[in-house]
Specification:
With about 140 residues, the protein is an alpha+beta fold. The mean pLDDT is about 90. The chain has helices at about 20-25, 55-65, 80-85, 90-105, 105-110, 120-135; strands spanning about 1-10, 10-15, 15-20, 30-35, 50-55, 70-75. The protein starts with a strand and ends with a helix.
Length: about 140
């Protein structure tokens, strides 16, 4: 089964080329930078980007187990149910902690907000993408 997902990942340099770490080390071949980061600002500080990709279930499992990657949402291709649903408190704790590691203590909740129990996963992902779009070197 193929899954669509949006993931938060750092940039890496591979053969002197900037490439998202998730692509460099997990072999994601087809992806889109949904933050729209300015190419002259890569890698930004903090070094994070949001990608949208379609991946096999086995690759999604590998991404989920990588501590360098945070999955904002994932669902079977063609479905909208999961991203429209509300994130669990555990999902938001994990995402906030991941952002804190990269952007500094306390930044995760500042970026995603404390009202996430009333929001959809796609809205939380939008907040992360909006923040990442403004990052600079």
């Amino acid at each position: 089964m193929i899954y669509e997902c949006e993931i938060l990942t750092p940039w890496a340099v591979v053969d002197q080329v900037n490439m998202p770490l998730a692509c460099a080390f997990h072999g994601i071949r087809s992806w889109e930078d949904v933050t729209g980061q300015d190419g002259s600002q890569i890698p930004p500080r903090p070094n994070l980007v949001v990608l949208k990709a379609s991946v096999a279930q086995s690759l999604l499992s590998a991404l989920a187990s990588d501590p360098n990657i945070a999955i904002l949402w994932s669902e079977p291709a063609g479905s909208l149910d999961y991203r429209r649903g509300h994130p669990t408190h555990e999902e938001m704790e994990s995402l906030a902690a991941y952002i804190d590691v990269h952007a500094g203590p306390g930044s995760g909740w500042d970026i995603i907000g404390t009202d996430t129990h009333t929001l959809s996963r796609s809205t939380v992902a939008f907040r992360v993408k909006s923040w990442a779009r403004r990052l600079r070197k």
